[in-house]
Amino acid sequence: MNMSKINHRFSVAPMLDWTDRHCRYFYRVMSKQAVLYTEMVTTGAIIYGKGDYLKFNQAEHPVVLQLGGSDPVDMAKAAQAAQEYGYDEININVGCPSDRVQNGMFGACLMAQPETVAKCIQAMQQACDIPVTVKTRIAIDDEDEYAFLQTFVDTVASASCTHFIVHARKAWLQGLSPKQNREVPPLNYPRVYQLKQEFPELEISINGGIETFDDAHLHLQQVDGVMMGRAVYQNPFIMSQVDEQIYDAEANSITRELVVQAMFEYIEQETQAGATTWHIARHMLGLYNGQPRARMWRRFLSENARKMPKGTALFKQALDIVAG
């Protein structure tokens, strides 16, 4: 059985267009322990794509590849590639409320096909030695009973999947956009707690609407891990408290200014290698949220990134403005 070596008590959700490698490096500056996830990458992109969709920085560990797909052969190929790249784990997307992509189904619609997910996991675990996990919803469309989730988890767990991350909302596959699917269906945390009670041998993490460490601690009395998404992206400096709050590590004395300075070497390297400052700065816009000069920080980065596309000058000047 493919047991995880990662401590999943706290993770940052995979978010399309957001949790790219620059974003993950930035978060890692503030937390050694948090588990970081890639944006969802499809099997088609990995097998047939022209770009390097798996690239990441060694500093990002522990880092998990989130994979979209449903063909066991392709999923196995992608798993093999992920292991060769050095990912710590692979997570199958069974939560995205998207419809279909060219190479078949992926996302939340797979909740209705637990046998397919189980076959993918078996094929992947034969192709690689790293753990394979699943991120899912509590239900889809009119399948609103707990029994639907129970059957899904039971079937997939029989393929030796031991960790499930459950977004505590159902997904509407018709009629709601992906954005609405993150906000409109009501949260049902007790259903995820019930899952943990029924499957105590499984590792169950909870996701959806978690905004503070107080929220996180309440959930951790019931389940094994919490996953935060938009709350972290909008106010990234909360990452500096994760190791102390969740993992009982020593308090992190890093300041916002030190976080920016800790990014300098990375910014130099990446902008020399072809990235622009905006590729990195866009993830840092929320760093000063709640601080007196937050708006000045955001505005300076947004308005000047294109004028200063390389090196650290953009960030140094922004720091001077915030320091007043």
Key words describing this protein structure:
324 residues; alpha/beta; single chain; DUS_fam; TIM Barrel; Four Helix Bundle (Hemerythrin (Met), subunit A); oxidoreductase; 10 strands; globular
SSE inventory with pairings:
Elements: E1 10-12, H1 21-30, E2 35-42, H2 43-48, E3 63-68, H3 72-85, E4 89-94, E5 100-101, E6 104-105, H4 114-127, E7 132-140, H5 146-157, E8 163-171, H6 178-181, H7 189-198, E9 203-207, H8 213-220, E10 225-228, H9 230-234, H10 242-247, H11 256-262, H12 264-272, H13 277-281, H14 294-304, H15 313-323
Parallel strand pairs: 1-2, 1-10, 2-3, 3-4, 4-7, 7-8, 8-9, 9-10
Antiparallel strand pairs: 5-6
Helix pairs in contact: 3-4, 4-5, 14-15
Would you kindly provide a brief summary of this structure?
With 324 residues, the chain is α/β, with parallel strands linked by helices. The protein contains 15 helices and ten strands.
Notes on the structure:
The protein is an alpha/beta fold. The chain has two domains: 10-247, TIM Barrel; 256-323, Four Helix Bundle (Hemerythrin (Met), subunit A). The chain is 41% helix and 17% strand. Strands 1-2-3-4-7-8-9-10 form an eight-stranded parallel beta barrel, surrounded by six helices. A two-stranded antiparallel sheet has the order 5-6. The mean pLDDT is 94.
